[in-house]
Write a structure and sequence with these properties.
Layout: E1 6-8, H1 13-21, E2 26-28, H2 35-44, H3 49-67, E3 72-82, E4 85-87, H4 93-103, E5 107-118, E6 121-134, H5 139-149, E7 170-175, H6 177-181, H7 185-194
Parallel strand pairs: 1-2, 1-3
Antiparallel strand pairs: 3-4, 3-5, 5-6, 6-7
Helix pairs in contact: 4-5
Length: about 200
């Protein structure tokens, strides 16, 4: 069977499940972009978390697209925006605890960006956002939550999976559900259908 035209520049199991559930034929490829170094450089330049998500998604799409010029390459990234500061993935359990305490009783935003590259250049991009309000949980609850969920949440900024027990962290969620999961799926599928990559 020939390789699909669509490449996902990500090994995220959540994003793969989203594309599979949407009926897309694709191959997943690790982009091997130094996300942390790029994020820090962008932050030093005063780039917003919203724009950082887009820039990282583009870097991944272009990295894989350079080696696959005839493919449509989807690059994705998600940032956690706490009052304009970009929170990264916690490096250990203690960092996750500190991060969750910093979110307690406050609102933050998740920005999920996708960029599609073709022939070595971006041809489509979209960033979707959601606003999440964290309830004023107790430290005892937090420690139990981390006991049960670390290290499975280590790969997530904010150290939570809303689709799992992490939903108990929140008392309100507004915005694009797929942005919370890390991919502006509705807008991307619409684009692929409009250009005939998916039967309409």
């Amino acid at each position: 069977m020939p390789d699909p035209r669509l490449l996902l520049a990500s090994t995220s199991s959540t994003r793969q499940r989203l594309l599979q559930a949407a009926g897309l034929q694709f191959r997943s490829v690790a982009p091997r972009v130094d996300e942390e170094a790029l994020r820090l450089a962008l932050e030093a330049e005063g780039t917003t978390p919203f724009a950082i998500a887009d820039a990282l998604a583009e870097a991944k799409a272009l990295k894989i697209g350079a080696r696959n010029p005839s493919s449509l390459v989807i690059g994705c990234d998600q940032t956690l925006d706490l009052d304009g500061a970009c929170l990264s993935k916690p490096e250990d359990r203690d960092a996750a605890r500190r991060q969750l305490l910093s979110l307690r009783g406050r609102r933050h935003r998740l920005h999920a960006a996708a960029v599609i590259a073709e022939g070595g250049r971006p041809v489509w991009r979209h960033t979707a956002s959601a606003t999440l309000s964290v309830r004023p949980f107790s430290e005892a609850w937090l420690d139990g939550y981390l006991d049960r969920n670390w290290p499975s949440v280590a790969g997530s900024a904010g150290a939570y999976h809303v689709e799992g027990e992490g939903v108990q962290l929140f008392d309100r969620i507004d915005g694009d559900w797929f942005a919370i999961l890390g991919l502006p799926l509705v807008q991307m599928v619409t684009y692929l259908m409009d250009r005939g990559e998916i039967p309409a």
